[in-house]
Structure formats: C-alpha cells, structure tokens
Design a protein that fits this description.
Radius of gyration of chain B: 30 Å
Keywords (chain A): Acetylation, ATP synthesis, CF(1), Hydrogen ion transport, Ion transport, Membrane, Mitochondrion, Mitochondrion inner membrane, Transit peptide, Transport
Strand content of chain A: 35-45%
Largest sheet of chain B: 5 strands, mixed
Shape of chain B: elongated
Family (chain A): Belongs to the ATPase epsilon chain family.
CATH class of the largest domain in chain A: Mainly Beta
Pfam family, one (chain A): ATP-synt_DE_N
Order of helices and strands of chain A: HHEEEEEEEEEHH
Structural class of chain B: alpha/beta
CATH topology of the largest domain in chain A: ATP Synthase, domain 1
Domain ATP synthase F1 complex delta/epsilon subunit N-terminal (chain A): 27-108
Number of domains of chain A: 2
Distance between the termini of chain B: 56 Å
CATH architecture of the largest domain in chain A: Sandwich
Oligomer: heterodimer
Protein name (chain A): ATP synthase F(1) complex subunit delta, mitochondrial
Order of helices and strands of chain B: HHEHEHEHEEHH
Helix content of chain A: 25-40%
Number of helices of chain A: 4
CATH topology of the domain at 52-250 in chain B: Pyruvate Kinase, Chain: A, domain 1
Mean pLDDT of chain B: 87
Amino acid sequence: MSFVKNARLLAARGSRLAQNRSYSDEMKLTFAAANKTFYDAAVVRQIDVPSFSGSFGILAKHVPTLAVLKPGVVQVVENDGKLIKFFVSSGSVTVNDDSSVQVLAEEAHNVEDIDVGEARQLLAKYQSQLSSAGDDKAKAQAAIAVEVAEALVKAAE
Amino acid sequence: MMQRTQLLLPLAMEATVLAQQQRGMATLKMISMRLKSVKNIQKITQSMKMVSAAKYARAERDLKAARPYGVGAQQFFEKTEIQADEKAEPKKLLIAVTSDRGLCGAVHTGVARLIRGELAQDEANTKVFCVGDKSRAILSRLYGKNILMVANEVGRLPPTFLDASKIANEVLQAGYDYTEGKIVYNRFKSVVSYQCSTLPIYSGATVEKSEKLAVYDSLDSDVVKSYLEFSLASLIFYTMKEGACSEQSSRMTAMDNASKNAGEMIDKLTLTFNRTRQAVITRELIEIISGAAALT
C-alpha cells in the first residue's frame, strides 16, 4: 500500500518538477561548518560527499535525501570547473527537492591547509590512546579519534 | 537587650542633636561621598561598556559566519513541513538559551517571559531545559518543578560547537521523550534591537510520521536518528551564537545608558555640592561679621 502511495507522491512531484524545471536546473549549495561558512546558497556544478552509507556525488536534480557525513574529503566542483577539496570531521548532508543542498559540518578546512606531519603525529597519539584506553567509553572515543585522524592523514597526503 | 536600648537611646538623641548643629558641614561631606561613589560607578559601567563592545564585535563576526549554518540546519524542517502529531499526548520541551551574566537589559527576562507564557498554558506536559543560570533564577520560583536540567558556565566565553553538542547530548540522554519542542532564544537584528523568537525541534518519531519524508530517498531510521541528533546540536549552536550576540549588544546599550545616567547624577550632585559649599561660606561670613559688629 505504502509503495503505491509513495509512487503516486513521486509521480505527482515529477510532473510538478517538469513544469518549473527552468530554475531548478542549478544546484544551490550551502556548505558551512561551525568555524566558517564556505558557500552560502552558491550555485555549483557537483559535490562529492563521504557518508556512512557510502560516498556519493550530487548533481542538480539529485533525488532528495539525507545522509550523515563521515570523516573525509568533500569535493566541490564550481561552475567554472574548478575543483576544491575540503576536509570534514563529521556532519550532515541534506538534498532537498528544490535542488538545494546543505552540507553542514562540525568542522571543515581546506585540504591545502592541513599539515601532513602534524596529522601523522595526531594519528600516532590517538592510536596509543586507543591501546591504553581503559573502559568502553574511552575506547569508543579513541576509536572515533583514530578514524578522524586516519581520514585526516589520507586527505593531506 | 532592653537595657542596651535604654543605654543607646540618649546616645542616639545626642547624635541627632549634633548632626542638626553641624548640618551644613555634614551634608557637604555626605554629598562629596555620594559624588565619589557615583563617579566610581560610572567608571565601572564605562569600562564594562568597553569590554562588551569588544566582545560584541567578536560575537557579531562569529554570528555572521554561523548564520548560513543555522539557516541550513532549519531548511530540512521547513521543506518537509513537519507537524507535531496532534492526536498523541503532547509532551513539550522548551530550551531556554540565556547565559549566566546579568546587567544586559531585558535579554534574559524576554526569554523567560515567553517560556512563562507557554508554561501557563500547559504546565503538566511541559519541561524546560535551561541553558545559563539566569533563566533558571527567573523560572525556578514559579516553575521549579518543570525545570528538567540546567547548564551553567555559559556566557563567560563565546559559545563553541562543543558546548552545543554537550547540551544536545544531555537533552537526548535526559530520558524525556518529547513529541515537540522549541528553542527559545534572542534573535539578533541590529546593535539596538533583538527579538525573542523560537525555533521548532522535533523528535525522531514525529519526523518519521511526516508525509513529505517519503520523497526523500534511501532513509533508514538510523540515518534519520543521527541526522536529527546532529541537527539539534547545530540548531543549539546557532541559537547560542544569536543569543550571545544579542546579549553583548544589549549589555553595551545598557551600560552606555547607565554611564549617561551616572553622568547626569554627577552633574546634579556637583551643582548641589557647590551650592552647599557656598552657603556654608556665606553663613560663616555672616557669623563672623555679625560677631564683630556686636563687639564694636
């Protein structure tokens, strides 16, 4: 029953989209982190995001979805074809049905700003913390820190 | 006790007689003391204004960066047009975003007043999460039972995402399954104005019932849950930034007004001081001259 309902909903939406396609052709990206705002409703060509359900690329008219960001690199292809990479620690991605995309990160930085040496040191520090962690909570925290540090090293290299 | 008052009574009478005799001198001394203390107060309010002006400049810069973030976090809820389930028993959660510090006009009272209004409507099914001691201080007298939790040490330093995620974590772990909620905060408009506003928050169950959610692709409850947890932290972060900026700007205005009022008081007191001093001099002159005239 619910499938039929969903299909009908989608079909109705599809026809509506077709009517006002003229302005939903472009994708508006809001990419912000707690420390900085990178894009505020700027029109871009493509965004690649790492999420817990797998990495995926977003183009205009992507099907609406929600996802949770994984530590990794977000790639933004601007309208003139320029590729910019950002490292994100965690956050969320929202793709709405009017082709607006919100990427909200807890913290994000330009990949060029990352120092590989420092990142490796961080990784080593958290790995030793993980091995020396006593209870489950500390272990889980250290595991998350290691995951972020690994992604950070990978992004910097 | 009685004995002592009996002993003190003649002493007190003597003192009043003495004060009446030296009235001109005493008031002169008193005025100068008063003048000094008002001048000190003015110095304090002036420096507080300077401090909050510097803090405000930073808060506004931070807020400018955080606004797109907050707007982005609200987008999903606006686009999906989520509405609270009216059939279910309503369990409301109000998050009051204030701080620990006072002397900033009606910033905190505005938030508390809005919450008091909500509580007056439905006291039994509403709980309040106080961020900052001020909202607790105002609300605890009448609605102490409705306060779920208080977060303090807010307002000394600019709010960070870590603070917000700690609060969000506490809200989620409090074991209070709210069906709908509101974040009550002050939205910063300009240096001279702010507006007490609310942002809606929703629990996972309410969101999953929303019709428009069907449009969204490949969702499982885990993703929705994590998404909502993160968006709660983002919204709290954004509202804390708004609140901090309004608070600093309001404190700046309040302290500016206080300095101005102290200035007025100083002018008046200086005038009275000079007048009294002149009166004392004149009186002394009259006494000397009439004394001398009586001798000749």
